[in-house]
Amino acid sequence: MEKRFRFTNDKIRALPPNPPDARGTDMEFSDSEVMGLKCLVGKSGNKRWLLRYRSPSGKRRSIALGRFPDMDVALVRKVARKQLTQIAEGIDPLEVRDEVKTQPTLSEFFWDTHFPLIKTRNRTWKQDGQRFRTLVEPYLGVVRLADITVAQVQQLQLTLSQGVKGRSPLAPATCNRALALLKTIGAHALRLGLVEVNQAAKIPLLQENNIRTRFLDLDESKRLLVAAAEFKNRSIGGLVAMLLLTGCRVSELRLATYSNLDRKNRVLTIPHYQTKNKQGRLVYLTDKMLEVLDSVPPKEGNPYLFPGRLAGKPLNNFRVAFDRILRAAGITDVENICLHTLRHTTASNMVSAGLPLSAVKAQLAHQSIQSSERYAKLTPKSLQQTSEQVSKLFSD
Predict the structure, then answer these.
(1) Are the beta carbons of 142 and 105 closer than 8 angstroms?
(2) What is the pLDDT of residues 114-155, one digit of tens each?
(3) What Å distances lie between residue 76 and 14, 32, 34, 62, CA to CA?
(4) 268, 229, 262: which is closest to 246 by C-alpha?
(5) What is the pLDDT of residues 195-229, one digit of tens each?
(6) Assign residue 35 a region: left if phi > 0, alpha if psi is -120 to 50, beta otherwise?
(7) CA-to-CA distance for 341 and 336, rounded, in angstroms?
């Protein structure tokens, strides 16, 4: 049987299996058109493509190209010629393939390299892990890190924002958090030299319009304090009241322990690892605040000021209870109010009472006065007072 001929699909299809008693596993045939292109026929009749060549260093090597009929003759010749061009340019295609195999996928890089790093640096590492697992990994996880394109990142953004079958469109803010995570991952890979370009950095964030303008006025705030004091779960009622009285973030108070409380000096210490800006601060306690803290009975073995139901754990997942407190206070639009609204309310009421923005900045531990200024803009009472003062300028 002729072992060297011009390959065609019909001739390859007609090749018989390698005899069962043959010494070798495969019978080899050579293409007369492309040097080094081989077709290996096994004893079961399966046919696979192989390219034999000499590497730029002179070593005899071979690289698998695929199987027939998955790859027909025209396609395998095209691939083989591309490999031979690389060899002529001094590139060994086998080394290139092995190098590609060592390149991590996006999932491998995230979980093996990026995630362990952010666990030591970011307070939101758990959210980042969940965000990657649910929003990014299902679409780009198997893609090699170096192969991710701008078009793929753009398509992910469109998929999340417009929705797909079985998945509703997500809010712009949620889509932006996923894209921001990809940008951060890309920047990390760029620093390590694993990619040449951070492709995600080329995609702009979506415009967000989710700024909350709802806050409780002074009358609503007073009613809420009463409802919180009467709520049967004193741990939840006490936390809601303290959030409103102090303007602290939920995590700052929820994770506060008895070791952070100095009753003698009337101070609650918020450690740096519980604050957003990673700077510890002091909350000066009033008689009213101490009264609220005293109304929360401690649980044996639980170090938290606002203990949860689980032994040794703080409060968690009490949105339903918060809604009940709001309704008990006569506040019905609960869908427009979240726990963070109470921090917003504290600042807004401070501005309405005429306190300077510097006081708001200090009470809420803002890093810049610009963060405090937004509350002045959102306070109708302060704007009304300003209008009255302007009018008085022309009334004399």
Answers:
(1) yes
(2) 999 988 888 788 899 999 999 999 999 999 988 899 999 999
(3) 18, 14, 10, 14
(4) 268
(5) 888 999 999 999 876 555 678 988 999 999 999 99
(6) beta
(7) 9
> Has residue 251 been placed in a domain?
yes
Instruction: Answer yes or no: are the C-beta atoms of 298 and 244 closer than 8 Å.
Output: no
User: How far, CA to CA in Å, does 359 sit from each of 122, 347, 373?
Assistant: 29, 9, 11
The 10 Å CB-count burial string (b at 16+, else e) for 182-195 is bbbbbebbeeeebb
pLDDT at 387 over 60: no
CB atoms near residue 269 (< 10 Å):
16
Q: Which residue is associated with the tokens 């590609």?
A: 100
The model carries a pTM of 0.52
Q: Does the pLDDT at position 272 exceed 80? A: no
- The helix/strand/coil state of 383 is helix
With a cut of 90, say whether residue 372 has pLDDT above it: no
Same domain, 98 and 159: no
Residue 251's domain spans which residues?
218-384
Helix 218-230 vs helix 339-352: crossing angle, to nearest 10: 140
Of all residues in the chain, what percent carry a pLDDT higher than 70? 89
CATH no. for residue 159? 1.10.150
Whether the predicted pLDDT of 80 surpasses 60 = yes
Strands (E), the chain: 4-5, 26-31, 37-42, 47-54, 60-68, 261-262, 267-270, 281-284
pLDDT above 90 as % of the chain = 58
Q: Are 265 and 213 in contact (CB under 8 A)?
A: no
Predicted pLDDT at 204 = 93
Q: Please report, for the domain that includes residue 346, its CATH number.
A: 1.10.443.10
Distances (CA, A) of 255 to 269, 284, 302, 305: 11, 17, 11, 8
Q: Which two tokens stand for residue 207?
A: 């415009």
The CA radius of gyration of the chain, in Å to the nearest whole number, is 34
Which tokens go with 61?
């090597």
Q: Looking at the structure, do residues 65 and 138 belong to the same domain, yes or no?
A: no
Q: What are phi and psi of 177, to 5 degrees?
A: -65, -35
Q: How far apart are CA 26 and CA 44, in angstroms?
A: 10
